[in-house]
Amino acid sequence: MRGPSPRMTGIDLGSFRLRRACRMPLRRGGAIAAIAAAALFGPAQPSLADFVQQGPKLVGTGAVGSNVVQGTSVAVSADGNTAIVGGPQDDTNLAGAVWVYTRSGGVWAQQGSKLVGTGAAGGAHQGNSVAVSADGNTAIVGGPFDNTQAGAVWVFTRSGGVWSQQGSKLVGTGAAGSFAQQGFSVALSADGNTAIVGGPGDSTSVGAVWVFTRSGGVWTQQGAKLVGSGGAGTSRQGNSVALSADGNTAIVGGSGDSSQAGAAWVYTRSGGVWTQQGGKLVGSGAVGSLVHQGASAALSADGNTALVGGWGDNSNAGAAWVFTRSGGVWTQQGSKLVGSGAVGSFVQQGVSAALSADGNTAIVGGQTDNNATGAAWVFTRSGGVWTQQGSKLVGTGAAGGGAQQGASVALSDNTAIVGGNSDNLGVGAAWVFVLPSAAPRTATHDFNGDWMSDILWRDANSNALAMWMLSGLQVWGTGGYGIVASNWTVIGQHDFDGDGFADLLWRDANTGSLGLWLLNGFTVAQTGGFGAQDSTWAIVGIADFNNDGKADLLWHHAPTGMVGMWLMNGLAAPQTGVVGTLPSGWAIAGTGDFDGDGNADILNGAVGIWLMNGMQVLQTGTVGVLANGWGIAGTGDFNGDGKSDILWYRNTTGATGAWLLNGLQVLQTGAYGIVAANWQIAGTGDYDGDGKSDILWRDTSVGSVGLWLIDGLQVSQFGGLGTVGLNWQIQGTNAD
Questions:
Q1: Which one, of 548, 553, 550, lies nearest residue 530 by Cα?
Q2: How many Cβ atoms from other residues are within 10 Å of residue 138's Cβ?
Q3: How far is residue 571 from each of residues 49, 155, 252, 482, measured CA to CA in Å?
Q4: N or C: which end of the chain has fewer CB within 10 A?
Q5: Nearest partner of 442 among 457, 434, 453, 426, judged by Cα
Q6: 439 pLDDT band (50/70/90 cuts)?
Q7: Sheet strand arrangement including 474-483
């Protein structure tokens, strides 16, 4: 099904006339009825505002074979917009490959074809490990089975969105034996000019690591291989590696040390020379002897915080340990980390681990949780104390039994990648999770916190409530909230408690009472209500008027013209009052932050704007005059400049256009196109998470839903989302 196609002819641009007019009248006084708190729908439940899934799972195209195990390794750039996923068993000869994905707004797409390094000897298992520079333009890929497990690594660079191999494969000198498995683990410095490569099979599984540096696009080995002192037995040093941002601190995990108790070694570089810093690190509080500490390792950007995973702790329940450095001395910080909510005793927490750049957020994978479904746990540090953040992460859309999510993890400041290499019977996949608090302000009705607006539906026959989760032009998830009596009407879909999730505001048509659902995706986390309000008071806008990250209510009293406001804080309205008065016959047409100061402003149907600061009107004025049958259809930030614009629609012709604003000034006007009369604007929102509002359409003849993705005054992309019976009605939305 295709959405409405914009036709760019026949637009009467002359009807978008700009006329300067006098200041709008503003009168103060009066008061809105006091708020009476009342329980409405049910008991309160805890609300979680933590990492949430962004879009569907990632599965690379062009794979050869059914047991590719994509997600064996993952990496993410510093800004979270480039992700790399390894599939070491791609192709029938197990050559392996990696896939690169980029995020535009909140939508992920594969960038180019899979990457396979040239010069491999035999089934190299490329993609067993991956790393990426901070800017996402340099990637290193490990293939530990190259040349009969001698191992090697390949470097790729990106220019203009195109990836190419940089030089020949890298193989460190000085390996002992023929099964060094170089490339079993890899890491890069932030600038991509220093690489560390683990070879845990070197010297009959004592293990070692090699460092390479880049100058002028040429890679050379820096010094001899590194082997930590104090190792006991077949340490398998190089099982995991990590680098600080400047490349001057490295941590090396050896999960086989001391009969598989495991350990980690830290090295520092000065003047191009590497030396071990202190003794090997072994976390205290381990249970059992086969802990495998060092199976995973991570470093903060400054190199002063280390995270070491040991998946065998406590009979394979698993754990992770944090170490910090002060004055060159490393000490364990707190007790070992074990995530709550695990299902079963064979979880293997610590099989993968990652740290944010500041070292205050850690993610730990447990690939065998819940019968190998797998999961990941997030921990945060405050004042030196680590606590679990929310529930474990388990991505939706897994197929074919145990996906083993958590086989690999990667983390930027607001984006986490979790690999599940057994998804769909070994095809493998990766899942992306984000912090709702990082969403653009344009994604107002975002129910699952993934930075993209969603669609709320209500069945006119049964009064059932349902939701579509969108990722650009794709509906990637659906769900329902149940049935609510027909006298209750949804009048708002905004974030009232500042947790990054849209909530639902209801009003009882019989009594005028208000009710609020505080939501966390498909979960009603908490509910509450307010006493009945006089039916002559109508809610005409919902927006954040005082820049506290929480939606407020705008009221209009038609008999007197008074405009009132409730400044909200979740289920409470600590401040209420009247902000002004409109002349008789005037109406509120919308809200939006027209001057970009973070405070929502008020738009009326006469194309006048009140610039607000909380409950104070700072400035008023009109921005133009509407003519020839044009009507205000909504508001939104259509060009991504942080300032709201006005969307226009002419119902006599189906023409659609916009005014791009800067406060009380119209910077630019233009038309998007003409659509057939059966297509009607259903709302605005940022459906692809790019910081620019888009336009949602509904075909009133058959129920089809279409979407225009907007870039300024252009429709950059359009398409259909599906067809739903006309008894299902989109609950009106606006991007501001």
A1: 553
A2: 22
A3: 16, 53, 50, 21
A4: N
A5: 453
A6: confident
A7: 474-483, 464-471, 455-459, 728-730
- What pairs with residue 538 in β-bridges? 556
CA–CA separation, 718 and 696 (whole Å): 10
Residue appearing with tokens 């704007």: 609
> Cα–chain-centroid distance for residue 116?
28
Task: Tell me the two tokens of residue 680.
Answer: 């009607």
Q: Which residues make beta-bridge pairs with 241?
A: 252
Whether 713 and 20 have beta carbons less than 8 Å apart is answered as no
Question: ∠171-176-181 over CA atoms, to 5°?
Answer: 50
Q: Convert the pLDDT of each residue in 636-682 to its tens digit.
A: 999 999 999 999 999 889 999 999 999 999 999 999 999 999 999 99
* Residue 627 Cα distances to 297, 634, 648, 666, angstroms: 65, 17, 11, 16
Mean pLDDT calculated for residue range 37-66? 68
CB 620 within 8 A of CB 638: no
Q: 407 in the Ramachandran plot: left (φ > 0), alpha (ψ -120 to 50) or beta? A: alpha
Q: Which amino acid, 617? A: V
Residue 248: how many CA atoms within 13 Å on its side-chain side?
8
How many CB atoms within 10 Å of residue 641? 16
**Cα–Cα distance for residue pair 53/478, rounded to 1 Å:** 13
CA distance 686 to 442: 5
The token duo for 34 is 């006091």
pLDDT digits (tens, 9 = 90+) for 678-714: 999 999 999 999 999 999 999 999 999 999 999 999 9
